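Researcher: We're teaching a course module on how sequence relates to structure. For the next exercise, students receive a sequence and then see the predicted structure as tokens, so they can try to spot secondary structure elements on their own. Here is the exercise chain.
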Amino acid sequence: MSTQSSTNDSPAADKKPAGKNALVSLFYRPPFVGLVAFFVVLVVQALGHTVMIVMEEVWPGQDYVYESAFAMGLLGAALLFIGMKSTREVAATWYGFWAGTFLWTGWVEFAFVWSGNYLNVPDLMDPILVNEIATKAEYLVMMSSVGVLGATLVYFLLNRETKCNFFIFFQRHLNLRTGKPTRGYKRNFAAITALETIYVIWFCYLLLLFIYDENILGDRHPVTYGIFFIMVIWSVYLIQRLMKFWKVTTAIRYGIPTAIITWNCIEIAGRWHLYTEFWERPQEFALEMGLITVGVIIAAILVVKTPSHKKAELSREELGVMPDDG
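Model: And here is the predicted structure for the students to work with:
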């Protein structure tokens, strides 16, 4: 959602990389910059489910699950603090993403877990698979937060300082501009990315939960199939745009909503039992989940090491790519 328009790349960056840097330079050009960012964010969505299940069901110290969740959120807050002080855009952007991820999982999701347990909200059972949970109690409680989401959505929609293409589109076409952006306004990329991560995850969770509700649509309703079809098209469209980005920080910020929207397609397909959601069964797929985790770490390190304004030898005109406008 929120992205940063790129500045002009340094002329020195156009020089051909030499020797051992030739292979590394592949990650400085499309489509790798965008794709790596996309897959890191996408896989982290699955790992978030894995972490929650491990904390609730696998770890021997289940009595300390809320203390563990608080510590996770505290880690997110610490990462946000470090990121907001950072003067490096790449580092600040990644700090923001991980901060938002830990804050959401540690403090937001487990707050709903606590509320569900405290209020004795029962899980919603699957009508097809016997003794299988369709929607956990914490997600049923989460639906009550839709009012807060709507209230904050108004602020973001009318914010004149926004650089988010999604909000700018509605401001432009619905005449919702509240003034010109402040000249010289300096954005904090860690804060922006953390808030973007939390907000997009939150929005998409509620969207799916209301779609799944049998009193509204239900997961087998024709409209749900239509929404799934639209999301698939939207995901492909966003991915092909993301593959044209040169700037790693812009790719990350664009990759967050792209990956999460794509994840919605995966979630709905899982709801239809089209595949095994192995990330929700870490006891059975420990080796596979371990390898995926290591892969995400390596991919994240590669992206972090990519200079924010580095450009490959080929010019943008030769490749016919768009500027990094998000």
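Model: If you want an answer key for the exercise: Confidence is low (pLDDT under 50) at residues 2-20, 311-326. The chain has one domain: 33-176+195-319.
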